[in-house]
Structures are given as structure tokens and as C-alpha cells.
Amino acid sequence: MDCPSEENLIRMKLEELEGIQHLDFDIPNRKVAVFHRSSSDEIEASLLQLNLGTQKLSTEATQQTEFTEQTQQRKLLWSVLIINFAFFGIEMATGLISKSMGLVADSLDMLADSFVYGISLLAVGKSLTRKKRIARLAGYFQIVLAVIGFAEVLRRFLGSETLPDFNIMIVVSIFALIANGVCLYLLQKSKSKKEAHMQASMIFTSNDIIINLGVIAAGLLVNWLDSSTPDLVIGSIVFGLVIQGAVRILKIGK
Question: Which of 19, 30, 130, 180 is the most buried (most CB within 10 A)?
């Protein structure tokens, strides 16, 4: 388990079985504890079908029957989702204004993260079919946007576009960097930071910080080299990451 998409994939696969009471994920150690009343062999067989390297470590009886959702965890995830979606709008708008593919691509990465968190939060209590439909729509939408982005990058490589506004690139990316830094701080100080969604959020936010730094570096290189190539290169890299995330999300909808 390396991302929220794989966690959701496991959740949806096990939802097909009767007797599943609760799933406790430990993403850093790639483990999941399954509280169930059904056959452990049936659970193991279902997980093996996902080709995620499933291995049963142990099984034991427990008297625990009640599992409560942590309100603080949900609030933090909602906060991360809102911040990501807000900066998707900000970076998309400023990216189009400044003609920066780096900002446009980073905005789609923010949107991709929002989709992942949204699938986890907004689909709570919905049917398995509804969850899969939401995942498929999110995945296909991301791929379409990324393909359009790649086409625009190619057009700019072959054309004679004016240079992107490196000042807007740098300033907006710095604000996005600060926002992601705040998110990471809030997640790390949370008492529930060892929970699956918290770990997943920290992984995604850490990756976003790296991308923000990449766009800032591209803005500096655009100014230094007097060329749009650094902006197009970072845009292409981030579009590739968006497609990779979309493919993982589509696995949930199978």
C-alpha cells in the first residue's frame, strides 16, 4: 500500500465480502488489520487477486466490536481537500494568465489530490457501485485534462509562444508551497497522524511541496535562460504524474 488509491482498492474489494467489520491500515509498514466474522482464507484469496503482494502475517480472536470514526481526522482531511481544490483554481487561472504550463500542470496535480480525498470522504455511506462510478469518473476526467495539457505542451514546443511570466510562476508557487507546508504541519501534529488517510495525505502533500519547488526552479530558469523550455519540461513531468495518479484511481473503479 503506497497511496490512497491502493487503500481504497482494498476497501472496495473487501466490501464485496460479508462479515467485514473494520479495516485498520498502516501504510508506512504496508499492513492492514482486518476485523471480520468471515473466513480468513476467503479474505486472503480476495486480496491476492489485487496483485499487491498480499501475505497473511497472523490471525487471532478479539473481543473488539465497536469502531468509531475520528471526527478530528475527517476535519483535517476536509481541510486538505479544500486547500488543494482552492489552489487548483488559483494555479489554473494564473497559469493561463501567465501562459505557464508548469502552473497549469501543478493545478491539475492539486485537482488529482482533491479527487483522491473526495473519493474517500464524499463516498462514505454510498453503495459499492456508486463508489466505483465516482472513481471511474474522477480517473477519466484527470486523464482527459492531462492529455489536453500534453497536447498544449507539444504545441508550444513546436510553435513560437511568448515566454511565460516567470514572476507570476514564482510568486504563485511560493504561496502554494506555503499552503502545502501548513497542511503538512497540521497533519504531522495531529494525534491521528498514524492513521491511513493521514499518512496518505502527508505523502501526497510532501510530493506537492517537491513539485512546487520544481515550478519555482523552472520560473528562475525561464528568466535566466530567456527560454520557455524549463516551464514546458516541468509541465510535462507533472502531467505525467497526474496520469499515473489517474490510472491508480481507475483501478478502484474496476
Answer: 180
Residue type, 51: N
* CB-based contact 202:190 (threshold 8 Å): no
Task: Decide: 250 and 136 in contact? Cβ < 8 Å.
Answer: yes
Per the CB < 8 A criterion, the answer to whether 245 and 5 are in contact is yes
Instruction: Please report whether residue 182 resides in a domain.
Output: yes
Can you give the residue range of the structural domain that contains 104?
Answer: 71-252
Residue 23 lies in a domain: no
| Lookup: cell for 32 | 492492514
Q: In angstroms, what CA-CA distances link 164 with 87, 92, 160, 168?
A: 19, 14, 12, 9
pLDDT in tens, 181-234: 887 887 677 655 555 445 555 666 777 888 899 999 999 999 999 988 899 999
Helix (H, G, I), strand (E, B), or coil: what is residue 24?
Answer: strand
Residue type for position 231: D
What are 127-163's pLDDT values in tens digits?
556 656 766 777 787 788 888 888 888 888 887 667 8
Enter the pTM of the model: 0.62
User: Hunting for cell 511560493 — which residue is that?
Assistant: 174
| The total number of structural domains that make up the chain | 1
What are the phi and psi torsion angles at 172 (to 5°)?
Answer: -65, -40
Residue 30 within a domain: no
What proportion of the chain, given as a percentage, has pLDDT over 90? 16
Summarize the confidence of residues 13-22 as an average pLDDT: 68
Using CA atoms, how far apart are residues 30 and 7, in angstroms rounded to an integer?
A: 10
